[in-house]
Each structure stands twice: as structure tokens, then as C-alpha cells.
Specification:
Blueprint (H helix, E strand, L loop, with lengths): L3 H9 L11 E4 L2 E4 L1 E3 L2 E8 L18 E4 L16 H5 L3 H10 L12 E7 L8 E7 L15 H9 L5 E5 L4 H5 L3 H5 L5 H16 L5 E11 L1 H15 L2 E2 L2 E2 L3 E5 L12 H13 L7 H7 L2 H7 L31 H6 L8 E6 L4 H4 L8 H11 L5 H8 L24 H24 L5 E7 L12 H8 L3 H17 L26 E6 L3 E5 L4 H10 L6
Parallel strand pairs: 2-5, 7-8, 7-9, 9-12, 12-13, 13-14, 14-15
Antiparallel strand pairs: 1-2, 3-4, 4-6, 6-8, 10-11, 15-16
Keywords: Hydrolase, Signal
Family: Belongs to the type-B carboxylesterase/lipase family.
Pfam families: COesterase (PF00135)
């Protein structure tokens, strides 16, 4: 299989032969010309906003674009390298470090003029098809990412084979300091959480334009992985749960892969303000009007200053600095997301949601020196800046030092990459992913339907079923059994809002019934390498019960 980025590169070089009659779509802003490959129409780089002004909210297209060549690689948004301290990873076994370092290659085409999207559809689609729409939001810790690498041609082909065809939209949005720089300066200017605002404007564009591509604007499902998964939840929380645009909901369902909420300090909190002040100083904008200075700064100087803000895999190890932060002066995102969930200020849509079993292994890799409980507490203090030491000490006390109890789970004493690795992995996986998800489910119990899953199909040394395994599953179609199950459940949900039921009202072929999650039984679907089974969502009960009581003390 040609990787998606390679396919787009070949297309841009003219090496992929387009059909004699290229697919062409007329919308209000102009004509979009795409290309067809393997019975899938592709339209690349469609602008959904004007060229963004740096550190300002996105604006709707103000003038037509004429005829757009939708066959060229679109620009990705500027971003600092995901791994800024590769030396740490060179200390790891090559079979662990190699794939991670290669996956951190930055996009080849980058520009601040990056607010564009990609549309893929079956080549048989007509303007009257009214296909359900899957709106994809990439991950990357709100610091990196691009729509370009994700080719969903095979997923669309599978939907056609299942008799439930669909259309996919992939959105680009600003990341890092360009999209999520916090601080009172941005708050006073009405320019907070810009990357999230980009996504929202793209959803509004879809509402207005997707019918011309054969999609149904009343049947939009938003889907994301990691930061994209968090974004799905956040769109259901934006404007205190009001998801309407021009009198209609922007979306009717959500699929969340590895991310529920990141409880966060306010956009003008001391922690967040410290990020802004350090960034401004590094950029040479420590003046009274730092915001104007940053907006006028040469691109490279602005980008390079990002290095002073701790990243996902920086010298400080695992950090989450760029994330949507509550801005109580603006109804767009006024509450920390766990608070909004607890107050049930959410759009009433169904969710299909879950995690990989070993979410924490990848993020524990740089913690080579954190081999004791005091060192782990210190590391967590850098992640949850205002958490009291006694809370963190109590939290990790639920995790045995015995490697057999750690992550990758169910691997006995194997895979202890360094002393404490499996314990560190278990703690990070739970505090950042597993427990945030379960706490959100409890808060929303009885309000919105939720189907939960856990992926347990990878046997990768040291990493297990790691963060991002679901993306690899869709790209490689391996292992075959969980791949087929995931695709069928997802396609059913996108079409009928129930993973068990296709648009004809029939249960999925040879798949177990997937029960809704509720706080009493807490049942999930487990995707194994050789089976799909129903099992309870009750791992590490005692640790979760303590976490549930202190969730709002653990703020990023």
C-alpha cells in the first residue's frame, strides 16, 4: 500500500494519472477540480477561511477563489518538531526509537496560509447522494499535526462494500503557539483557543458547502484521535453545549479515539501566563505591546521561539503545554472541560469512544531517569503544575513497583525498558487517558449514549497496544480481525448513530452486540487480536476512585 503522503507527493509531481474527466464541484466560492484514484475522488487544499492573521481568530472567505487546483499537496500549518531532544530516543533500543523518530518527520509543505481541508468521496457520488459525512480532526498534542498523512480511501471503500457509503473531510487547523498560545494578552484581544476556532469555522464551512460534494450536512459525525479526540468532545462543549449554526446542529455524533478531556488551568493563570511571557521574551518581544510585536515578527523567529515552551518529548520529558484553556470572558470555551462535563453543558449527541490499552508507554519513554517514586512525583508535578505533592504521592501509591502490574499490561516481567518504566507507563496512561475518559462517562451517564472500547491487539515490544495503534490498524488493515470489527462498527455508527445497526436496521455480521456504557455495569467492547468480546471497564478500580475525587486538582 502506498502511504498517503507518498500518494499526494506523486500526485503533485504529476505521476499519478488523473481520470480523463477530473471530478469537478461548483460551490459558492468557486470551482474545485480534484482527481480520482482507486475509485475515490480527492479534492485537496480547499480553503475554508481567509489567510489567517497571526494570533487572530479565523475569518470566513471574503472573496471567491475562482478555479482551484485540488490535486496539489496542501500546506500544513507551522509547527515545531514533535521530538526536540532526539538524543533521548537514541538511548532506546532501535526497534523502539526507530518508528517513533520516523513518525516525527515534519510536513513537507508548510505555510501560515494553512486553513484548508481535504475531501474524499466514492467516485460514484453525485450532488444528490446525501452521504453521511465523517469530519476528521488529527492529533499531535495540539502542538503538531496535519491533515495530509491521513488517506481514508480504504475506509471509504469498506463503507461502500458494506452498503453504507460515506464521505470524509480532513481539516487543517493551527497548532502550537500559532493556534494555542495562552495569556491575558490573547484573552483581552478575544483571540484565545485559535486552533479550536479554526476547526469550528471548518465545520460551519461543511454545513454550507458539503451538499455540493454529495454529502448530507444533517449527517455529520466528528471524529478524531488524541488531540483530535479531545477536540471532538470540546466541540460538544463549546458555547455551553450549543452546537447549532443557522438553526441546525453542526454535527450529530462523535467518535473519540484516545482522548476525552484535559482539565486545564485558565488561559490567564500563572502557568499559562508563564508560557506567554517566556515565549515573548525568547522572541524578543518583551515590550509593553508584546502581542503586536509577536504578530509582526518574521515567521522563522516566531517559530523558533516555540522551543522555549516544554513539548511532548522535550528535554523536560513529557509535557502538555499547548491545549485549549478555559477563557471565562468568552462563551466559546468558558470552563475547564471536565467542569463543563460535570455540569452537563454538552450537545446531546451519541459518542463512540475508547482508548488503547497501553496509552502511556510512548510518553514514558523519555522518563529514563525517573526510576523512583519521588522522581515520578517530580515529573508529574511538571505535568500537573498546581497539584499538591501529597495528592500525587497518594495517586501513585496505587501502582505497584512490580513490572508485572505495569504497562504494557499482561506481559509479566517483560518489557521493563528501564527501572520503573512499566509503572510510569501505567500512571501516565491512566492519568492522561483512561481515567479522564471513565470520569467523563460517569458525569454524562444517562444524558448521552456512549459506546466504549479498549484496544488490546498489539504485541509490540516495550510499547504494547500503544497510543496511535488505532491509526496503524486503519492504515495497515492488520490484525485483520480487529480491523474488520472496528470498520464495521464505525461505519454503522456513522450511518445510524448505533454501532450495532446498519442503515437497513440489521445487526453487524458476526459481531457481538456492543452494549452502551452505564455507570452500573460499565461494559466495553475489547478489540483483541483474535476476538471481539464484551468486558467490564474496571481496570485499576482503587486508583480510579481516588482519581475521581481529585480530577479537578490535576490541571494541565
Amino acid at each position: 500500500m502506498i502511504p498517503s503522503y507518498a500518494l499526494f507527493a506523486l500526485t503533485a509531481c504529476g505521476l499519478v494519472t488523473a481520470a480523463a474527466q477530473q471530478p469537478t464541484v461548483q460551490i459558492t466560492d468557486g470551482t474545485v477540480v480534484g482527481f480520482t484514484n482507486n475509485s475515490i475522488d480527492n479534492f485537496l487544499g480547499i480553503p475554508y477561511a481567509d489567510t489567517p492573521e497571526r494570533l487572530r481568530p479565523p475569518q470566513r472567505l471574503s472573496s471567491p477563489f475562482g478555479t482551484l487546483n485540488g490535486t496539489a499537496i496542501p500546506a500544513s500549518c507551522p509547527q515545531h518538531p514533535l521530538i526536540v531532544d532526539p538524543e533521548v530516543f537514541t538511548q532506546l533500543p532501535p526497534e523502539v526509537s526507530g518508528p517513533l523518530l520516523s513518525s516525527a518527520i515534519p510536513p513537507s509543505v508548510v505555510s501560515e496560509d494553512c486553513l484548508n481541508l481535504i475531501i474524499q468521496r466514492p467516485s460514484s457520488t453525485t450532488p444528490d447522494s446525501k452521504l453521511p459525512v465523517l469530519f476528521w480532526i488529527y492529533g499531535g498534542g495540539f502542538a503538531t499535526g496535519s491533515s495530509v498523512p491521513y488517506d481514508y480511501s480504504t475506509l471509504i471503500q469498506e463503507s461502500v462494500a458494506l452498503g453504507q457509503p460515506m464521505l470524509v473531510v480532513r481539516v487543517n487547523y493551527r497548532v502550537g503557539a500559532f493556534g494555542f498560545l495562552p495569556g491575558k494578552e490573547l484573552q483581552n484581544d478575544g483571540s484565545t483557543n485559535l486552533g479550536l476556532r479554526d476547526q469550528r469555522l471548518a465545520l460551519e464551512w461543511v454545513s454550507e458547502n458539503i451538499a455540493a460534494f454529495g454529502g448530507d450536512p444533517d449527517k455529520v459525525t466528528i471524529w478524531g484521535e488524541s488531540a483530535g479526540s479531545l477536540s471532538v468532545m470540546y466541540h460538544a462543549l463549546i458555547n455551553n453545549g450549543n452546537s447549532t449554526y443557522r438553526g441546525k446542529p453542526l454535527f450529530r455524533g462523535g467518535i473519540m479515539d484516545s482522548g476525552a478531556v484535559f482539565p486545564a488551568e485558565a488561559v490567564d493563570s500563572p502557568t499559562a501566563q508563564g508560557f506567554f511571557d517566556n515565549f515573548s521574551a525568547a522572541a524578543g518581544c518583551g515590550s509593553e505591546d508584546a502581542l503586536t510585536c509577536l504578530r509582526e515578527l518574521p515567521y522563522e523567529e516566531f517559530l523558533n521561539a516555540t522551543a522555549v515552551i516544554p513539548g511532548l518529548f522535550g528535554p523536560e520529558a513529557f509535557r502538555i503545554s499547548f491545549t485549549p484553556r478555559p477563557d471565562p470572558t468568552d462563551d466559546f470555551f468558558p470552563l475547564s472541560p471536565e467542569k463543563a462535563v460535570q455540569q452537563r453543558k454538552i450537545a446531546p449527541i451519541p459518542f463512540l469512544s475508547g482508548n488503547q490499552e497501553d496509552e502511556g508507554t510512548m510518553f514514558a519513554l523519555p522518563l529514563l531517569n525517573d526510576t523512583t517514586s519521588p522522581l515520578l512525583v517530580k515529573q508529574l508535578k511538571g505535568l500537573f503544575h498546581t497539584a499538591a505533592d501529597d495528592i500525587l504521592e497518594r495517586m501513585i501509591s496505587f501502582y505497584p513497583t512490580d513490572p508485572a502490574a505495569g504497562s504494557p499490561f499482561d506481559t509479566g516481567s517483560a518489557n521493563e525498558l528501564y527501572p520503573g518504566f512499566k509503572r510510569n507507563s501505567a500512571v501516565l496512561g491512566d492519568l492522561v487517558f483512561q481515567f479522564q475518559k471513565r470520569a467523563s462517562y460517569i458525569a454524562l451517564d444517562g444524558l448521552v449514549p456512549i459506546w466504549d472500547y479498549l484496544s488490546k491487539y498489539n504485541k509490540v515490544d516495550f510499547l504494547g497496544t500503544m497510543h496511535g495503534s488505532d491509526l496503524t490498524l486503519l492504515q495497515t488493515q492488520q490484525p485483520a480481525l480487529p480491523y474488520k470489527a472496528v470498520v464495521q462498527y464505525y461505519v454503522n455508527f456513522i450511518n445510524s448513530l448505533d454501532p450495532n445497526v446498519d442503515i437497513h436496521g440489521k445487526y453487524g455480521k458476526k459481531l457481538p452486540h456492543w452494549p452502551k456504557w452505564d455507570k452500573d455495569e460499565r461494559l466495553s467492547i475489547y478489540f483483541l487480536d483474535n476476538a471481539t468480546v464484551v468486558a467490564p471497564d474496571d481496570d485499576r478500580k482503587d486508583a480510579f476512585e481516588y482519581f475521581f475525587g481529585v480530577q479537578s486538582e490535576l490541571l494541565f
